[in-house]
Amino acid sequence: MKFLIALAVALLAVVASEARPEVMVKTQELDIAADGTFKHNLELDDGTVARAEGDANNVNGYYKYPTPEGETVEVTYVADALGYHPQGKYVPAQLAKVLNYIRTNLKPE
């Protein structure tokens, strides 16, 4: 019985390692200015990219990553006093409508 458990754990480890290949960082930059503004850039060798810039109150960003199905998800966003506002093909349409309504009709306190 112990042998079967050990074998199952070993097989699971092999399958997990094949499902998640090692990804290396190509570029990583972070610049923070004295006034609190920042710029961040990250690129991985699997095609993943994340970029953001702004300050404590407003951030504009972009990210993309490959899916296991071979597609690329790309999202641009704004994060501000009214929340996180993503835009992109993979952002559900109803969510985009609600977030757009919030952004255009509500004012931060």
TrEMBL record:
Q: What is this protein called?
A: Uncharacterized protein
Per its UniProt record, what InterPro entries does this chain match? CHIT_BIND_RR_consensus (IPR031311), Cuticle_Struct_Prot (IPR050468), Insect_cuticle (IPR000618)
Q: Which domain of life is it from?
A: Eukaryota
Keywords (alphabetical) are: Cuticle, Signal
Signal peptide region: 1-19
One MF annotation (Gene Ontology) recorded for this entry: structural constituent of cuticle
